[in-house]
Amino acid sequence: MRRRNIARNHTEVELFPFLSILACTIGTLILLIIVLTTQALEQQEVTIIAKTEKGENQRKVPRYIECRQDGVVLYPSEEFVPEEQLDNPNSALQKLIDRVKANKDREYLIVALRPNGIDVFESIRNLVEGEGIDIGYEPVDSTWKLIIQQETK
Fold first, then answer.
1. For residue 50, what pLDDT is reported?
2. Which option is the CATH number for 45-148: 3.40.50, 1.10.1040, 1.10.287, 1.10.10?
3. Above 80 in pLDDT, residue 1?
């Protein structure tokens, strides 16, 4: 008996186009990861400016403080007052509050609030509101560098 010779058609699948698309996709994702990581590592800056929507502040002059976990920083001098000294009548914070209180019709306080400074902010807010001083606050991320822009008249 003779064996029949059956011709089989082999279908070949070409994977090169698929691998090419896969390589391009992986390269794009790697580039995206590098760009996002580089931007995340750069220190962010935030500038606080007390202005109305029209860019004006005609009523009162702001005085700035920053609440951190361990105390407050007074601006523009960047003088640090530890949390233990907040109630001290001779502290720089109390002197600032007294100055603003004397001019409360022309001045008010803006507090830059760090996420870990909420307890300190509560103490500051109680002190300031007890004196009848207007207060505003601006939440600021813990990694941002704070820049206070003083108004020029």
1. 65
2. 3.40.50
3. no
Summarize the confidence of residues 128-141 as an average pLDDT: 84
Give CA–CA dist 55/62, Å, rounded: 14
Is the peptide bond prior to 76 cis by the omega test (within 30 degrees of 0)?
A: yes
How far is Cα 11 from Cα 66, in angstroms, rounded to an integer?
72
Cα of 44 vs its chain's centroid, Å = 7
How many other CB atoms sit within 10 Å of the CB of residue 110?
Answer: 20
Decide: helix, strand or coil at residue 97: helix
Instruction: Identify which of 111, 20, 19 has the alpha carbon closest to the alpha carbon of residue 62.
Output: 111
Is 82 exposed, middle or buried, given 0-12, 13-18 or 19+ CB atoms closer than 10 A? middle
60: exposed, middle or buried (C-beta count within 10 Å: 0-12, 13-18, 19+)?
Answer: middle
Average pLDDT score over residue span 96-118 = 87
Query: Is the model more confident about 48 or about 75?
Result: 75
Rounded distance between C-alpha atoms, residue 64 and residue 135, angstroms? 10
Return the biggest CA–CA distance within the chain. 119
